[in-house]
Amino acid sequence: MCNSRKQSLRGALYLSAAVLVGCAAPNSQYYSLQSPASVPPAAITQIVDAISVQSVSVPVQVDRPQLVVSRAGGAQVNLLNDSLWAAPLGDEIRQAVAAHLSRQLGVPDLDRLSAPGDLPVWTIRLTVHQFDSVYDAQARLDISWRLAAVNAGSKAKGLPLVCRAIAIAPAGNSVDALVQAHQQALAAVSGLIAAQVQQLREGKPAQQAKAPDWASSTLTLQGCTAA
Q1: pLDDT in tens, 109-160
Q2: How far apart are CA 179 and CA 31, in angstroms?
Q3: What is the pTM of this model?
Q4: Which string of DSSP letters, residue by residue, matches the chain?
Q5: What is the number of structural domains in the chain?
Q6: Can you tell me the distance from the alpha carbon of 49 to that of 107, in angstroms, rounded to the nearest whole number?
Q7: What is the residue range of 72's domain?
Q8: CA nearest to 34, candidates 80, 105, 107, 85
Q9: Is residue 2 part of a domain?
Q10: Distance (Å, rounded) from C-alpha 203 to C-alpha 149?
Q11: Residue 137: CATH number of its domain
């Protein structure tokens, strides 16, 4: 009798384990907003200025480990528990923009407080107003930035400058496609900011800067104003 009970209990335990294994969630996938570089960055032999991309403010609705996705024409949003950001969303955006600017301008991204005291530093503070991931439709980024400078002298004329833009990139019917669309949107915004810094380097007004031609179909500048 005791052996039968032991065998029944053992069988029940095996069955429970099998059920748990069968219901286990698949391994989570992690995503980054840093797009792969097509070419390696140029070696920095002499630092004449630098950038400092500050912490990024993002809407609370999307400030989550999971990707927050909606469908076109619908009010419902879904948290994808198996599709996670590799770092907090604000950090992902900051790192992506900093990488683009560093590569395009050929300068390091430095903590402004730890930069050499006489080094010109272009500071960028980003505020994300919307970060929409619409499945099988588009990634939409509504973002503003404050461009300022430290130790830039006459080249900083017109700063601080506050600008706002909307970047929309088409996306297919997969999480990979949505993330790639957000990478494209951030690259377009970074391209315009880089153009503004380059204008200032040349002693020209940042407001005259234009986004790269390849970004023209993605980015719409809403306007800039002196802060």
Answers
A1: 998 777 788 999 999 999 999 999 999 999 999 999 999 999 999 999 999 9
A2: 7
A3: 0.85
A4: -HHHHHHHHHHHHHHHHHHHHHHPPPPPEEE-S-PPPSSPPPP--S-S-EEEE---B--TTT-SSEEEEEETT---EEEEEEEEESS-HHHHHHHHHHHHHHHHHT--B--GGGS-TTS-EEEEEEEEEEEEEEETTEEEEEEEEEEEEES-GGGGTT-SEEEEEEEEEE--SSHHHHHHHHHHHHHHHHHHHHHHHHHHHTT--GGG----GGGTTTEEEEEEEE-
A5: 1
A6: 7
A7: 28-226
A8: 85
A9: no
A10: 13
A11: 3.40.50.10610
State the virtual CA torsion across 160, 50, 142, 146 in degrees, nearest 10.
Answer: -10
Q: Does any domain span residue 17?
A: no
**Are 205 and 146 within 8 A, CB to CB?**
no
pLDDT tens-digit map of 31-79: 999 987 655 555 566 789 999 999 999 999 999 999 999 999 888 999 9
Q: Please, which residues have CB within 8 angstroms of residue 164's CB and are 6 or more apart in sequence?
A: 129, 142, 143, 144, 145, 221, 222, 223, 224
| Planar angle of CA 182, 185, 187, nearest 5 degrees | 110
C-alpha to C-alpha distance for 166 and 169, rounded to whole angstroms = 10
Residue-level pLDDT at 115: 77
Does 15 map to a domain?
A: no
